[in-house]
Design brief:
301 residues, alpha/beta, 5-stranded mixed sheet, 3-stranded antiparallel sheet, 22% strand, elongated
Length: 301
């Protein structure tokens, strides 16, 4: 097994296509295919399943790639440290819930390290996928919250996947609403106040239980007859304005990203939420990850 073979395997996993992967790593398709076969034979596992539509990871291949990515990234850090910073474009990925401060921190990292070329990824995605991404090193860092409702389940998942959780801040619950919403005149909003308006939440796919909800209160926690699930932040904010909807969150908002017509008001409940960074245990964080953590701490204040 060689470092180059691991790089080939990572390229195939990322592109899910032998032809595209061969272009990415600058070797012929037959040579790439032969190298992957040799790696599979040496490891005694089948990493990829091949179909007419491309390639997919097997279950054992998925586990193998989580380690392969770690080796490749650590090798990249060594090359960067001892061969100089100009050897390759920087690579960095974050998976997060839909937080504007997570986006602002990502912008700061690009401004600091972007240079002439880079390969950065920001995935605003579902809670379970955030944990999966970091566990399998598809993302170096993840950003999500814990509360008394989901802490046991999330903590067990993090422990199972050998992940750390570093708290960034703990906040009381707030409501995001339009500045034109009738509730905008209130200093504090109650759950009863919200009843006439639609509750906007992020859909969680196959893991659509309140344990993985991005909102710390679900429709089963209070009288909430109007519910709308969405997949992205732009849609949520458009509906929030167009329908006088609301969502429940930490209260930290970026007017630079979201505009002046979205405001936050405290919610009259005792619940709190702790937003934090997740990362793999015993993995040295890249300078991009370290910079991101510093940046997100600034934007959370």
């Amino acid at each position: 097994m060689t470092l180059q073979q691991l790089k080939y395997a990572v390229a195939v996993a990322d592109t899910k296509n032998i032809t595209e992967a061969s272009k990415k790593v600058f070797i012929s398709q037959p040579s790439l295919t032969a190298s992957i076969h040799e790696l599979e034979e040496e490891m005694g596992i089948k990493i990829f399943s091949r179909t007419n539509k491309g390639v997919t990871l097997t279950n054992e291949g998925d586990e193998f790639l989580s380690y392969a990515r770690q080796v490749v990234e650590q090798a990249g850090l060594l090359e960067e440290r001892y061969k100089g910073k100009g050897e390759a474009n920087p690579i960095f990925s974050v998976s997060c819930q839909h937080y504007s401060f997570a986006v602002n921190a990502f912008v700061d990292v690009i401004r600091e390290f972007g240079g002439a070329g880079y390969d950065f990824t920001l995935r605003e995605t579902q809670t379970y996928e955030i944990i999966e991404d970091v566990a399998h090193l598809k993302s170096e860092l993840g950003v999500l919250y814990q509360s008394h409702k989901n802490e046991d389940i999330i903590s067990k998942l993090l422990k199972k996947n050998n992940l750390n959780f570093e708290a960034l801040f703990t906040a009381g619950l707030h409501v995001f609403i339009s500045s034109e919403n009738p509730l905008a005149q209130k200093e504090i909003i109650t759950l009863e106040d919200l009843k006439p308006f639609p509750y906007l939440t992020y859909e969680q796919g196959n893991y659509n239980s309140f344990y993985f909800a991005e909102e710390p209160l679900s429709a089963i926690d209070f009288d909430c007859p109007k519910n709308i699930k969405v997949r992205d932040r732009a849609t949520l904010f458009n509906l929030l304005i167009g329908l006088n909807g609301y969502t429940i969150c930490s209260g930290i908002i970026s007017h630079e990203l979201n505009g002046e017509n979205i405001i936050a008001r405290p919610l009259a409940v005792d619940d709190k939420m702790t937003v934090g960074i997740i990362s793999r245990k015993n993995v040295f964080l890249s300078r991009y990850a370290q910079s991101y953590i510093e940046a997100i701490k600034r934007h959370c204040k």
